[in-house]
Specification:
single chain; 681 residues; mainly alpha; 5-stranded mixed beta sheet
Length: 681
């Protein structure tokens, strides 16, 4: 017990010291190791995973184990109204107990398996710094959740909303990832506004662990290393999302949590009935659905595809589905039940369009090929190899295709998208193609090239693969004008037919022994196939590595307003301002706000967001009466007003209102802003 206490105390002390003396990126890497990896490792060892998985696989499983370790403590905090510091203390105490009752020492690790993460971790972390995003867009929304978790004296599902007297957001009713990130910032002693973007390197290091472990489980060390390289490359050359968003819930789910599902189901198929791996699979489904409930859909599709081809481990997948259904029910009751479905009045994804979906008589039957492939030549290689791998030497090489098939059918086969658009919504459905694990299949193809080609044929093979990848997307681009479903929908249908064929022929697509391919040649073939086929992306990525990903600072909120609210507004003020300023004030400060833009509240019908926006419009109209304004102030408990000074008549009325006290004029665009305090009896 003494050793366990020392481990936790020393880890926390080192993290706090790092937060004081180091740049925030490395300090937050240590903080995430302390607040997520250490509790996860302790829990995984306690349940016996360390006796079934080696060190590489354990590192891959740790992010989900860490999420599982946080879930009961955070749930207790919400139920009992604890402060977040008390929840953090419970997690620390739990970690001490788990370390004391288990053997946390890692197993040995092969030299090649040690070398890949040893190189990839620092390289990926350093590269990710160059892709960090500024605080804009969705990052502002997530920062607001983190700040509220840290600031509220008593946690509740309602209190983490950025809206005054707000209700839970359907995607983040139980803000598990936000709580873990808040813990890292708290332990490191780093200001949330400054530190939130700097969580990216820590998230990318977790990507290294989970992606390598998943790829290695499917095809061996060479496949794992190549899959990792392809994932990093894909997210480097993607415009949105990109590597700099790895700490956001969506990218974090697809990059970190879903690969743990691949690892868990793959190892479970090797030892069916293993309760430890069944628990890991269930914890993965639970973690994904708690981080964002809609993202559990592609994970379940992936698992269903694997089980359809393997015809084993049905009950563990059913358990994962049952846990996800329970979270869906919880979200529906807490955030959606009894409220009208929001009507999207502006912004993107108001309705299905042909640039994203395959439309038949106005109905979206599937995502189109351009949206799914996202101009990734490596994805095209995996897609074209999917059916041949199912057939060639069946079923010895079929398992990687089985891993890819489920999500591909979900997004590309006619039908499922209709249901998804009607339930989780168009704005979420279009993101699900990101979850297709094509990198594993492309890496298997590269390994097969290395295995079955003599060394002198590797260079010609690289040239042929690069040429095929370069020609393919260009040819397909011209086809998409009149056949937007090619080749994704036909291959998705073929994957469905393949599952039926495997049942009829009584074949099982099971994980094969590791492919005996050399790591470096496999890596070279895989990267050449995707890099050489797109020289412009290669040049852009190289430039970004040197100079940094282009960042556009987008904020219309003067620092003087933020500073005044932080210093003089009180511990958790309620601010009324125009919607755009309110959206940022809810994140840059501990303030609650009255209303934010429509696009940010589509999953918050219980907060009555449209009524809030109308109230703000009413308040800011010069024609509104003093009584109307005072009613709005009392309705939301407003304590601070931040008012654009562009309407002199409005400012004159507010100056004369006995309920208000003018506090500060802030220069800015137009006539600037006036800040008022509200006098409460």
């Amino acid at each position: 017990m003494v050793r366990a206490v020392l481990v936790v105390v020393v880890a926390a002390a080192v993290t706090r010291a790092a937060g004081a003396v180091l740049p925030s990126q490395p300090a937050l890497v240590l903080a995430v190791a302390t607040t997520l990896v250490l509790p996860g490792w302790a829990l995984a060892c306690t349940v016996g995973l360390s006796r079934r998985l080696d060190t590489v696989a354990m590192l891959g499983a740790v992010p989900v184990a860490g999420m599982a370790a946080w879930t009961p403590a955070l749930a207790l905090g919400f139920v009992a109204g604890l402060s977040f510091d008390m929840v953090l203390g419970i997690v620390a105490l739990q970690t001490i107990v788990l370390l004391a009752v288990s053997d946390p020492r890692p197993q040995g690790i092969r030299a090649a398996d040690r070398l890949v993460p040893a190189i990839a971790v620092p390289v990926a972390a350093l590269i990710s710094v160059q892709w960090q995003e500024p605080l804009a867009g969705d990052a502002v929304f997530h920062l607001a959740r983190v700040r509220k978790i840290l600031a509220v004296p008593h946690l509740s599902l309602d209190s983490v909303s950025e809206l005054a007297n707000g209700k839970p957001h359907a995607g983040y009713v139980f803000p598990l990832l936000h709580a873990v990130e808040a813990a890292a910032l708290r332990v490191a002693g780093i200001n949330p506004t400054a530190g939130f973007p700097d969580l990216v390197p820590a998230a990318v290091i977790l990507v290294v662990f989970t992606t390598f472990a998943a790829g290695r489980a499917v095809g061996g060390t060479a496949v794992g290393a190549s899959a990792l390289a392809l994932v990093l490359w894909t997210w480097m050359v993607s415009s949105h999302p990109n590597l700099g968003m790895a700490s956001w819930p969506g990218p974090f789910t697809f990059l970190v949590l879903v690969p743990v599902g691949v690892l868990a189901i793959t190892e479970l198929l090797r030892t069916p009935g293993d309760r430890r791996l069944t628990a890991l699979l269930a914890a993965t489904a639970l973690s994904v659905s708690l981080v964002h409930v809609s993202y559990a859909v592609p994970l379940l599709a992936l698992l269903a595809g694997v089980v359809a081809y393997a015809r084993r481990c049905v009950l563990p997948v059913v358990l994962a589905g049952a846990l996800t259904a329970a979270v869906f029910g919880f979200v529906w009751l807490a955030a959606l039940h009894g409220y009208p479905k929001p009507v999207i009045g502006a912004g993107p994804y108001q309705h299905a369009t042909s640039d994203v979906f395959v439309l038949v008589h106005g109905h979206a039957l599937a995502l189109n090929a351009e949206s799914i492939l996202a101009h990734q030549p490596g994805f095209l290689i995996a897609l074209l190899a999917l059916v041949p791998l199912l057939i060639w030497r069946a079923p010895s090489l079929a398992y990687p295709s089985a891993v890819m098939s489920g999500v591909l059918v979900l997004v590309a086969a006619p039908g499922p998208v209709l249901l998804l658009n009607a339930t989780v919504g168009i704005g979420q459905t279009h993101r699900f193609a990101t979850a297709v694990p094509w990198e594993i299949v492309t890496s298997v193809v590269a390994a097969l090239v290395v295995i079955y080609a003599d060394r002198r044929w590797i260079l010609p093979a690289l040239v042929l693969l690069g040429a095929a990848a370069a020609i393919g997307p260009k040819r397909l681009q011209s086809l998409w004008d009149f056949a937007p479903s090619l080749p994704t929908t036909p291959i998705a249908i073929a994957a469905l037919a393949g599952a039926v064929w495997y049942v009829v022929r009584r074949l099982r697509a099971l994980p094969a022994p590791p492919m005996q391919a050399a790591v470096l040649p496999t890596l070279a073939v895989a990267l050449a196939a995707v890099m050489l086929s797109d020289p412009s992306s290669l040049r852009t990525a190289a430039s970004n590595v040197v100079h940094g990903h282009p960042r556009v600072q987008r904020t219309t909120l003067p620092a003087a307003i933020v500073n005044w609210v932080n210093r003089h507004g009180g511990s958790m003020p309620v601010v009324l301002s125009d919607q755009l300023r309110s959206y940022r004030l809810g994140a840059y400060t501990n303030a609650y706000v009255v209303a934010v833009p429509e696009v940010r509240t589509r999953a918050e019908p219980a907060s009555l967001p449209e009524q809030r926006r109308q109230d703000v419009i009413t308040f800011l109209k010069p024609s509104s009466s003093e009584a109307e304004r005072e009613a709005i102030i009392r309705k939301y408990g407003v304590t601070v007003l931040v008012i654009p000074a562009d309407h002199p008549g409005l400012i004159t009325q507010l100056d004369q209102d006995p309920l208000l006290e003018q506090r500060l004029h802030v220069a800015g665009k137009g006539h600037g802003w006036e800040i008022y305090g509200v006098r409460h009896p």
